[in-house]
């Protein structure tokens, strides 16, 4: 990854297919990489939250990352999540990711451990200086239980610690403040961090984020409909906001699949990941819709709801 | 307010000028109403969070609302906040607001008391049937410590309980899901709640919210620069997104005034409200920048920072 | 209330009986005061959270407080909750409570409005100097969404702002730090705030709190079984911890009534308050078990579960 | 560990000494084990939060656990934390801990990943059936951001999934409900889970927890003053509550060291862990007070405050 230009475009957080035993299904994973690349995505993010990184052992993470890197074979950059509690543990994952051939790393602030903003800054500075690959900050308060402040991200962007931000905070106001702090939508190339890449993880407001100046998007739903997100991205880049909004609204409808699972019987996160995986199974990409332990599996009625969403979105033929 | 068309446009949440004694400064308030109306705003929201409703006694609330209603004299609709903990207390405020001449009411979910979603639905249904004025739900998790779900708002929109939503959640993904659930940006007029008005309180992403299908905006910063928000709104309506984004970025810079106060000595909320009020003083609208008890007042250095923001935004002449 | 001695003992937060119409049932309320006083309680706390203060209009609060004060007729001190969002609104309630004859006031930190610790200190200092009655801080994070720090309470105790603390935080470690900071269990009378009264609202660990040095308890469940709490208190004071623990365990069992209502259909708070009120109805004290709007009422099966708890605790004859 | 009797007594969560390089200082660790055992503690908990498990690599965790197990040499049981995000990752740590010779495992609910209560139950059941050692649930909401419910713990205690609970929630009311649900203080031996061990992590209210029926305590401060906690425990067991409270108050004073570090410059967690480690250095047990990355180190003034607390508590000679 060149450091002179920010990463731009659609960078799906790759879902990890599993066998019913819980082992990684590398055949489905390789097929999924082709599914995504053939849709024209601009990069891949392996071992993110949608990839169930939190549920994979170190050995499984390694299998996933090597499979993705090998399948991609240099066609697009591969970002690797290095999700763990603190600096020393993240550094261990960083070394493994570097050896597996990742192009960049994506790291959250510390979690489980409670840290001060100055300690979070130290965390990123240590990672930046020792990880040996471009570093993206992963802002995901729903998991980390804290938000990276605009000031901190700007500081770490300006001093070169960070190559970019993956913003899954859903806080579009803060993202806007960051864009403006870095020079504004049109001025960033001449601003203090011209190569810094801002990627939103908010898959329901991609038209808005790109309009506001984000460089790209990391949409979980992009596993299921990568071509839709590429069309959405291209429409914004072409200045056709009407088409972009139309595409975004179709994707919002499709996103409804995340609530397929019964609310009183399973988590919203396992419902969403299960829906994406079963959708990929229905689309012929994954062999199984299995999610990792201890998540509860979607039942048949829930899977049927996933199928309906796919048909309504035109991804499966109507019955 | 006609119920056949949703309220649209810029609806500032009116700041409440106070004398240093803490009494409402009705002269400044009347002047502020002219300041806002002459900028072309489409409605006013009195007694909201920016209006320090939480800090005003019932008697003061009455003075504020009557002053606003009298000053507006029917030129635009006046929405009145009825901010209190539970249904019986909100109903008491609703009666007062109706007598003072408000055109519509804006009510949060219960707070302090802990309530179940079904109890929140009851709350709005009781208010809707007994308050005697069109009812807006005020979704403000930062104060209420809960978020109104898309499903609940849709249900209350479709059954006619709610005339609209004032969304201060900052959750643009949920707002998008609501727009789509009600028929989509272009389809809402033919959808299940054609007259339902969606107003965003996210003053930093107004271009996006309007693009996504929101009907209007309730910007706290609109107290300071109402003309800027009207220009932003008009640019989106005219389809000139480039101009809209430029205007929005200027307003994001101006918004930086909210951090004028020292972080270790006062709250971020009192810093923001103090900044708005001192800006209005510097602009000649308010006689004082005083905020209500127990908020700490901005010191001189902080006020100087507010002035710098005004000058940078072109609202005060450069020195 | 003398300021030379801390308030000690059992001070139930008085539940407010309502007619099915929602009006205050003053006859039941007067009967309830007798029910409590005849059990030997040492004070009453009217208009607290268990008293549904958040649900009562100002007029209803006045009726409640006057009824309690009149019924008590000076036999024990009456503390009055002045629950509202900020200083000016709390001061208005304080004036009403003073006129109604309350002996002391109980005020939370600001809520809905977001305030800095220095602003919370200002809040209490203003109340303390202007309210005209001894002031208790009410630490109830579940409603206010912030905790009063040990340092702040100590500071306000030592400078005489506060007469006491009603600690409903459930944070026994902080309560312990406060006791030690004020001189320790045996040293408080000679410490920096000898007349400061520490009352715990944690009705399930009263034996512990009194052992640790708390002066008294404000138990919601004390509405239902005031004699049990008096026995528990007396046992600790007599140094009979074994008896105290036995009594506490019986009360923990009885407390299980708070989960009488179905979890998927109503809030835990309305279930608890409804259980207390129906228990009082079954005991012949209240005419109705009605809770205020918008709370959902306990259904018959839930009320039956309340009755079972009363029988198991020996408060109703076995069937 | 026999499964017929619950683990009882003082079980310190062993702090992990580090060299300034960040490597584990096994010499100091072995010395610390002797420091703790010679004070009469009843077990050790390695790799807990106080042991900085979140900051140690897998390799470091292994070094720590093997050093502790070897040093203990069977004199007391060694519980090993297996702190990680989800079931598959915890199982990997469990295997390592078993091989290293741990006597029991201590596992939190999933974190980072968001899970439903039914998924948390699955997590513990899978661990219980596959980990091959007695399993303790670690309830630590400050890190995991969720609380284990009384009903869930009871269910897992009664079906034999769990050997015990390490309760660091600070919620003494829930702990009391659990004790009562399992038969009460005196009735637990004849209750549904007679060998289930309840250990509190609330080091400031140990007298209360033991009085209420807890079996033991896991006090972070017990690293610094294990003899104090053993005296406290013995006093309660001997029925001498007055002596217990006196000892507890002394320990509360000593605990004040956790705030040694400046609040605006480092986290409260790194301040506390740094204080414990520097106290152990001042006591001659640790060679260094170093905490792991990215925590900020205590400065000299802060370390001086730690020393003052040790002198005040009689653990260091007065100057």
Throw out a few tags for this protein:
319 residues; alpha/beta; eight-stranded parallel β-sheet; 12 helices; 8 strands; globular
Oligomer: homotetramer
Strand content of chain A: 5-15%
Overall average residue pLDDT of chain A: 97
Distance between the termini of chain A: 44 Å
Question: What portion of residues of chain A is helical?
Answer: 40-55%
Helix-strand pattern of chain A, N to C?
EHEHEHEHEHHEHEHEHHHH
Question: Shape of chain A, please?
Answer: globular
Greatest chain-chain interface? A-D, 43 and 43 residues
- Structural category of chain A: alpha/beta
Report the total helices of chain A.
12
What does this structure look like?
Chain A has 319 residues and is an alpha/beta fold. In chain A, 44% of the residues lie in helices and 9% in strands. The first copy, chain A, contains 12 helices and 8 strands. In chain A, strands 1-8-7-6-5-4-3-2 form an 8-stranded parallel beta sheet. In chain A, α9 packs antiparallel against α10 and α11 crosses α12. The longest helix of chain A is centred in the N-terminal third of the chain and has 15 residues. The first copy, chain A, is globular and about 55 Å long. The mean pLDDT of chain A is 97. At the A-B interface, α7, α8 and α10 of A face α7, α8 and α10 of B.
